[in-house]
Amino acid sequence: ALLGAAALLAAGMLRRPEAAPEAAPGDAFSAERALRHVREIARAPRPLGSAEHRRVRAHLVRELTGLGLTCEVQRATVVDESDGMRPGATVRIAADVANVVAVLPGAEGASRRPAVVLVAHYDTVPASPGANDNAVAVAALLETARALAGSRGKLANDVVFLFTDAEEIGQLGARAFVERHELRERIGVVLNFEARGSRGPALMFETGRNARAAYRHLERAAAHQYTSSLFREVYKRMPNATDFSAFERAGAPGFNFAHIGGYTHYHSASDTPEAVEPQTLQHHGSYALTLARRLGEADLAALRGAEGEETVFFTLPTGRLVRYPARWTVPLAAATAVVWLAALALLVRGRALDAGITALGAAAALLP
Ligand SMILES: [Zn+2]
Fold first, then answer.
1. How far is the CA of 121 from the centre of ligand 1 (A)?
2. DSSP letters spanning 81-97
3. Are strands 311-315 and 203-207 parallel, antiparallel or unpaired?
4. What is the mean pLDDT of each run of 10 residues along the chain (368 residues)?
5. Cα of 92 to ligand 1 centre, how many Å?
6. How far is CA 313 from the centre of its chain?
7. CA distance 54 to 36
8. Ligand 1 centre from 267 Cα, in Å?
């Protein structure tokens, strides 16, 4: 019964919002509306230098300009001499990248303040149409831009929509933005959207430095949340990287989102629009839109200046976010051990437990 209850609770944590229909209110996020972008973008693979790559970039510029945003293409030649994806192997590549950068202007004086930066890459690996990786995220940002541009009244801060190039060959577009674009001085907070699968909830799996202050916004951002600092510990040990790393190195606070269910579609020819789960798209979009609205009104200079501290966090089955400073971990573990030993001592003294058998049981735990 205990196992069954635990399984039910765990399954309940994978909830995501229902996909909003085409006819949803204009200021809301609609996965059905965003899906039209996914079908338009993910017709074929669009690696750097391909005709599809150019077609999709032109589509993005057209859509963003049509929404009334100021839109430009940042071109840069990036030479990468890092270790690449495989440690120990030196990879040298030079690439001409083209990022699409659109700005939704905030209220008076916003151009002198830090901005909210939403990021999704539009390139793919050569063998995949990349409907999830990363057309879902691109579509989520386009639908978010539409909802924000159509809302009455301006946000306090500028909102930057950054569609990066060449993520799949070493996050070169993100690097070009962070190192060379004039907006690099005004990165207040970063929200990066990614995919490593085809369904399931959008997991918030990585935070930048100084993220502690940003949690206040995350807590109230979406009705269904599923996150844990454990995700980051796992992710750190994997060879994967995302655009978020470039921003994190630049010291920007922020959050990194991705869905990981249905991972067999990742970087595969089967990552087509039919493989996209509308609720997953809705989940990314609800994070993007609510966080853009909240952070669009926040004091981002204070957020960026907030003292950085590692934080342990996780969601309860009720959806509530629990967090505490990482430096509490050892004292908490010590307190748990003390309480546990005290309980054992009481039980042994009351003859409810046999000390020898209990010690043997504890020793057996070392075996696995
Ligand atoms: Zn990706």
1. 7
2. -S--SSTT----EEEEE
3. unpaired
4. 90 86 96 97 96 97 97 94 66 90 96 96 96 97 97 94 94 95 94 95 83 78 80 83 90 91 93 96 95 94 75 83 90 96 92 89 88
5. 21
6. 15
7. 19
8. 9
Beta strands in 105-158 (DSSP E): 115-121
Identify the DSSP state of 51: H
Contacts of 244 (CB under 8 A, 6+ apart): 119, 190, 192, 194, 206, 208, 254, 256
Rounded CA separation 103/71 (Å): 7
Count the Cβ atoms, other than its own, within 10 Å of residue 193: 29
- Listed residue (225, 68, 224) closest to 161, CA to CA: 68
For residue 270, which phi and psi values (nearest 5 degrees)?
-85, 5
Q: How far does residue 21's CA lie from ligand 1's centre (Å)?
A: 26
Q: How far is CA 9 from CA 15, 18, 35, 58, 150, in A?
A: 11, 19, 30, 45, 39
* Residue 64 CB neighbour total at 10 angstroms: 25
Asked whether the CA dihedral 73, 75, 81, 86 is positive or negative, the reply is positive
d(CA 121, CA 165): 6
Using the mean position of ligand 1's atoms as its centre, give its distance from the Cα of residue 31 in Å. Answer: 19
User: For residues 154-176, b (16+ Cβ closer than 10 Å) or e, as one string?
Assistant: bbbbbbbbbbbbbbbbbbbbbbb
Distances, alpha carbon 294 to alpha carbons 106, 107, 289, 353, in Å: 13, 14, 9, 54
- For the residues of 309-359, what is the DSSP string, one character each? --EEEEE-TTS-EEEEEGGGHHHHHHHHHHHHHHHHHHHHHTTSS-HHHHH
Distances (CA, A) of 70 to 117, 240, 258, 298: 14, 33, 27, 22
What is the whole-number distance in angstroms between the Cα of residue 46 and the centre of ligand 1?
12
What is the distance in A from the centroid of ligand 1 to the CA of 167?
Answer: 7
Find the 180 Cα to ligand 1 centroid distance in Å. Answer: 22
CA 103 to CA 157: how far, in whole Å? 10
The residue type found at 96 is D
